[in-house]
Write a structure and sequence with these properties.
The chain is of the alpha/beta class and about 130 residues long. The chain has two domains: about 5-60, 2,3-Dihydroxybiphenyl 1,2-Dioxygenase, domain 1; about 75-125, Roll (2,3-Dihydroxybiphenyl 1,2-Dioxygenase, domain 1), CATH 3.10.180. The protein has helices at about 15-25, 55-60, 80-90; strands at about 5-10, 30, 40-45, 45-50, 75, 95-105, 110-115, 120-125. Strand 3 (about 40-45) and strand 4 (about 45-50) form a beta hairpin. One of its GO terms (molecular function) is dioxygenase activity.
C-alpha cells in the first residue's frame, strides 16, 4: 500500500504558518529537515510541511495563478468535543471560521476554517455523532 508521506503548504512566512499549525494541533517538528526554505512536522501517520516561495524553483514548479481553493487539509480529532475546542483555539490563533462545527450528511462532525494565509482546512471527528 502506498502511504502519504508529506503534504506541503507554500507560504511567504513559513515560521508563522508552521507555528500556527504546531500550536493548534501540538505537532512535533522534524528538526532534521528544518531549513530556511522548509519546516516539517509529524501529523499522525504522515507529515505536514511548510515551504517558502524559493522552494518553487528548487522543485522545478511555478506558483499557481488565479483564485480558488486547490487543497483542503483535514485533521482528525478523537471526538466531537475536541472538534469544537480546536475550532475555538484555531480562531484564537488567527484562523477564520468558515463553517461552525456541524454534523455532515454522512454522520461525521467537522468545522471548516481558513488558516492565517487563507488556506482552507477542516477539523473532523469520523465517529458517529448523535
Amino acid at each position: 500500500m502506498i502511504a502519504l508521506a508529506y503534504t506541503n503548504i507554500f507560504t511567504a512566512d513559513i515560521n508563522r504558518l508552521a507555528d500556527f499549525y504546531s500550536e493548534l494541533f501540538g505537532l512535533e517538528e522534524l528538526l532534521e529537515s528544518r531549513s530556511p526554505l522548509f519546516r516539517g512536522f509529524t501529523a499522525g501517520g504522515s507529515a505536514i510541511g511548510f515551504s517558502a516561495p524559493e522552494a518553487y524553483d528548487l522543485l522545478g514548479l511555478k506558483p499557481q495563478e488565479g483564485s480558488g481553493d486547490r487543497v483542503l487539509q483535514t485533521f482528525d480529532a478523537p471526538d466531537a468535543d475536541t472538534v469544537s475546542a480546536l475550532t475555538d483555539k484555531a480562531v484564537l490563533l488567527g484562523a477564520t471560521l468558515v463553517k461552525e462545527p456541524f454534523k455532515t450528511y454522512y454522520g461525521w462532525f467537522q468545522s471548516v476554517l481558513r488558516d492565517p494565509d487563507g488556506n482552507a482546512f477542516r477539523i473532523n471527528f469520523r465517529g458517529q455523532f448523535a
